[in-house]
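Notebook entry, structure prediction.
Reason for the run: the old model in the group folder had no record of what sequence produced it. Starting over properly, with the input documented here first.
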Amino acid sequence: MKITWLGHASFRIEVEGAILLIDPWLTGNPSFPDPHRAQAIEGVTHILLTHGHFDHTSEVDTIANETGAFVVGIPELCGIFSAHETIEFNKGGTVNLGGALVSMVPATHSSSVGSSYAGTEAGYMIKGDGHTVYVSGDTDIMADMDWMGDFYQPDIGILCCGGHYTMGMEGAAYAAKRYFNFKTLIPAHYKTFPLLAQSAQPLVDALPDVNVLTPQVMETIEF
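New structure, fully documented this time:
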C-alpha cells in the first residue's frame, strides 16, 4: 500500500489493484505544486468522494475525463457526476474496487455542490494489502467512531484536523485516543488556508504512542 498526500484533504492511495484519488483538488489548491499534476493522477482507477464542496469535488469532471476513472460515493453525489462511470453505494455498504474493500461509514458535516443537494457526508474504511485505513472525510468527533473503531479495527488513520470547518488538532487527538487503536496517523485538511491550523505538532505531541506522520505534499508513504 502506498499513500501520497496531495495537499489539503486530497490523497492518492495505491492499494491492491486500485489507484484511488480521495477528494481530489489539485488546480487552485494552494498546497499542491501544479507541475506534479500528471504524476498525481497517473493510472487512477477510482475517484472516491466523501462529500460535496469545491475543495473536494471541483476537479472531478476534469480528472474523470482525463483518466476514465470511476466516480465513487453516495448516490446523490454520484448523480451530479452521472456523465461519468459511477459506483454509488451508501453507509453500511462495501464495494470491491480492484481488490480493495471500501466501506462507507458516517461523518458529520454538510454536503453540496453549488446549490445542488449532494447527499450526506461520509467517511471510508479501505481494506487491502494487509491494512485498514480510516479516511474520516470532513467531520467532527462522533459517538459513531466508537463502533467504527471496534468493528473495522483500522490501523492507519487519515483524520481531518484543521479546525474551523472540521475537528481541530485537539479533537482529532481525542478521537484517536478514545475510539481507535491506530499504529499510524496522517493529518489532513490543515495548513491550506489561514483559517486552518498551520502545524500538526499538537497532534504529534498528544499521541506519543502513535506514529503520527506529517508528509510533504507529493511524498509517498509505503506500508
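Summary: The longest strand covers residues 100-106.
The old model has been moved to the deprecated folder.
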